[in-house]
Amino acid sequence: MKAQTLIRWSLPVGFLLAVAALALAVWSYGYRQALDSLAERSAADLALASDRVSTQLEVYQELAVLTAEHPVLRDLSEPVARAAAADLLRSIADKTAALDVFFTDSSGRVLAAAEGVVGSSVADQAYFRRAQQGALGTGHGVLRPDDQRAYFYAAPAFGSDGRVRGALVVVADIEDVEQTWRGSLPAVFFTVASGEVFIANRSELLFWNRKAAVAGGAAGPGLEAAASRPRVLAQWHIGPHEIWRLAGSPYLPARALHLSVALPVIGMTGEILVDVAPARRIAALQAAALAAVCLAFGAMLFFVMERRRTLAEANAVLESRVAQRTEALSAANVQLRREVREREEAEAALKRAQQDLVQAGKLSALGQMSAGISHELNQPLMAIQQYAENGAAFLARGKAERTGENLARISDMAARMARIIKNLRAFARNESEPVGKVDLAKVLEDAVELTQTRLRECSVRLDWAPQPRGEIFVRGGEVRLTQVFVNLINNAVDAMLDQEDRVIRLMVHRGARLSVTVQDIGPGLKEPEKVFDPFYSTKAVGSSEGMGLGLSISYGLVQSFGGNIRGSNAERGAVFTVELEYWKEEEAA
């Protein structure tokens, strides 16, 4: 029995070991292929960064060569000539963003400079000695006391006898060169012959002694002993690719592909560190996919074999128990029929309960719609009442023209109520007023006009600048958008009724997304996150204005236009911001 069990489980274990070995081989192959592709892209990125740095520095090289033979620099024996040369060099430095431009005689003494000290000597500098040999001299260094990294180009200036009479030195600002590509691409840095990083798009790599870090030795010249400096924990090769394991910087990959390219033009070596995690993930996905396929096939085969074995065993047992099982199966069949009947009855009861829930939902929606209709029609009715009272007063004074204006406004309000009822009826039928091109200036004027009487009665000063019509068109519905701003203005008035000074600021902010703000100087919002919930209100219980539907309805209307509305607290009072989308003519098309 034990031997059979051992044989039975040895096959799955051997199969799992084989799948693991195959997945490991696929991972290794996929990893190498992904590294090849990653190396090609990284080499292109490194070449691009190297060309960019070389090109930017060559600008200063050409500047040095072209300026060395300038007529102003031919004879600097007189103070006047040296002053004119200093003005010229200062102008060149200002226009090219060079740190300094100066001219030396054949002994290395500075005769004229844009920023440097006249009379100082650069005779001990390698770039000057190279220029004295009649060739273009280059060099790099850190300028004190500001610790500015600089690259030097020294172009020889020849006299009439063909001998070198001096040199023009242009000092390029390395930080200015780095500005155009800092933080872009993977980690790219440029090392000098000593292995010290002099140019990099990651600040933590500056002055990092790359050779010392790779060798694991002590810090070299110029390397600060700081804990944040990156260090190389291990280095190995996978095929032709060199892999580093790094630590000490959150902005560098833990495992990186290292590539380098010599740049003899600027006397540096360009290097790049590229995260190999994507390559590892690709290889892992390939290995996992293969392992999953193999395991799925093996599982199917194992289950088929187990099923056959189990069926064989069950068949042997079943033949001896057919008679006993027949009675049990008959009883089970009766029980199953009973359960089927009970389930059918339960499904019928569930359907009836769902229908009852749908009917209850309809009744709840009708109740909410009734409250919404009363809220939507309340303000136009108040406006009609105010215009009627004003019309009666004007009629008593014999001002028939003003009375006619009020009657016309009453007619407009009645038409407006009809449009509101039409919109609410359409909403109840799952319809809405078509979204179209709306003049925002007209909408705001209508809202201000509807609330003007109440603002005057409540002694509220409205601070706003009317916008010219025909300039700002938004996406929405004119009636519903007017109602949004009427609700916001009325809510602002309600918030300031318990104080003496009452001011509302209505402002339009143009930008990539248009917004309109309504701000009061009241007590502010106690719970800004709940102000748009249905039936949420801070007004007195039982008040006709306190149903808490205004902001909820406004929120739904603005959302239907593709906009947004939010409420927050300012330094004093509350501010509601309505964001709307500009109308685009292609929408009409």
Kindly report the spatial arrangement of strands forming the biggest sheet.
Answer: 7-6-11-10-9-8
- The CATH architecture assignment of the domain at 434-588 turns out to be 2-Layer Sandwich
Q: CATH homologous superfamily of the domain at 434-588, by name? A: Histidine kinase-like ATPase, C-terminal domain
C-alpha geometry: flat
Helix content: 40-55%
Helix segment tally: 12
Range of strand content = 15-25%
Order of helices and strands: HHEEHEEEHEEHEEEEHHHEHEEHEEHEEH
Mean model confidence by pLDDT: 79
Derived from helix and strand composition plus strand pairing, the structural class reads: alpha+beta
Strand count, sense and barrel status of the largest sheet are: 6 strands, antiparallel
Radius of gyration: 42 Å
Low-confidence stretches: 217-227, 357-369, 426-431
CATH class bucket of the domain at 434-588: Alpha Beta
- Counting DSSP E segments of at least 2 residues, the number of strands comes to 18
Provide structural commentary.
The chain is of the alpha+beta class. Among the domains are: 68-178, 2-Layer Sandwich (Beta-Lactamase); 350-431, Helix Hairpins (Orthogonal Bundle); 434-588, Histidine kinase-like ATPase, C-terminal domain (Heat Shock Protein 90, 2-Layer Sandwich). A hairpin with a 7-residue loop joins strand 9 (241-247) and strand 10 (255-263). The strands form 4 sheets. Strands 7-6-11-10-9-8 form a 6-stranded antiparallel beta sheet. Strands 2-1-5-4-3 form a 5-stranded antiparallel beta sheet, with helices on both faces. A 5-stranded mixed beta sheet has the order 13-15-16-18-17. Helix 1 runs antiparallel to helix 6, helix 7 (322-396) packs antiparallel against helix 8 and helix 9 runs parallel beside helix 10 (478-495). It is built from 12 helices and 18 strands.
